[in-house]
Write a structure and sequence with these properties.
By secondary structure, the chain is of the alpha/beta class. The protein has helices at 20-31, 43-54, 70-84, 108-136, 157-177, 195-198, 203-210, 221-232, and strands at 11-14, 35-40, 60-64, 89-92, 139-144, 182-189, 243-246. The chain binds 1,4-dihydronicotinamide adenine dinucleotide.
């Protein structure tokens, strides 16, 4: 195996892993030797995907974790320590979108829901991952922000607020824990063809959305996960505090 992507023996915890980026990342890390704790609010879904990965011979445990609950995030990290003795990689991926609507229609309930999952959920994950990584003297955290975390997202203002906050958490964490050898980065994908997008956009709408990108198309989940693997690579040892756009050129235009 190419040493750049050799995760043999690395212990990773991933939130929101029942489907989409989280599931694909778990499959790719398992193929490359990682031991996994996968979690999701969708308990049945996460157990099903973990069973599929376990059938390939990988070491994996699945559990329900609602990232908006601090205790659930603690339990996820505790499970990794109990089962595998450490946490090398924390991926705070769970997130939700909201219905597109103008900023002046966004009410407090939408804001609270966005912040509970997309912001507090990331902080809770980081908190317990970092507590363990400090004991180990090393670790790598990857938060999933969005292009909506870098620029404005018309009709997605609450999501954009929340994803900007993830970037604040990522950069602050990188500065606070650089000396402790804990790398903290984020990815900022443009619209990508997971259920989050295909649930609301049919092929015609996907085509229209894709025309906003210089590459004239939306992202494929495997293209996002390839970059997640590279950022988490055990060979990627000097990069921290970065929020990397994976966007078909949108941010360059
Ligand atoms: P997805 O909808 O396929 O997967 C999200 C997963 O998170 C689901 O399995 C869901 O059950 C889980 N989840 C939802 N609420 C949760 C909670 N409270 N606790 C734990 N798990 C919960 O979506 P996708 O695309 O894989 O999204 C992953 C991340 O990527 C999210 O943070 C999303 O905001 C972000 N993202 C997605 C983009 C896209 O176009 N697909 C673009 C930019 C960012």
């Amino acid at each position: 195996m190419d040493p750049l992507l050799n995760f043999t023996g690395k212990v990773a915890v991933i939130t929101g892993a029942a489907q989409g980026f989280g599931k694909l990342l778990a499959q790719e890390l398992a193929k490359r030797g990682a031991k996994l704790v996968v979690s999701d609010i969708n308990e049945q879904g996460v157990h099903q995907m973990a069973d599929e990965i376990a059938a390939t011979g990988a070491e994996i445990i699945a559990m329900k974790c609602d990232v908006s609950k601090s205790d659930d995030c603690k339990a996820m990290v505790d499970a990794a320590i109990e089962e595998f003795g450490r946490v090398d990689i924390g991926v705070n991926n769970a997130g939700i979108a909201h219905e597109f609507m103008p900023l002046h229609d966004i009410d407090e309930a939408i804001l609270d829901h966005q912040f509970a999952i997309n912001v507090k959920g990331v902080q809770f994950g980081m908190r317990y991952q970092i507590q363990q990584m400090l004991k180990q003297g090393e670790g790598a955290i990857l938060n999933v922000s969005s292009m909506a975390g870098i620029g404005g997202a018309p009709r997605g203002s609450a999501y954009s607020m929340a994803k900007h906050a993830v970037i604040g958490l990522t950069k602050t964490g990188a500065v606070e824990y650089g000396r402790s050898n804990i790398r903290i980065n984020a990815i900022c994908p443009f619209f990508t063809l997971t259920a989050m997008v295909t649930n609301f956009a049919d092929k015609e709408m996907q085509g229209k959305m894709g025309r906003n990108a210089p590459m004239n198309r939306l992202g494929e989940p495997k293209e996002i996960v390839a970059m997640m693997l590279m950022i988490l690579s055990p060979a990627n040892t000097y990069m921290t505090g970065q929020c990397i756009a994976i966007d078909g050129g949108v941010s360059a235009a």
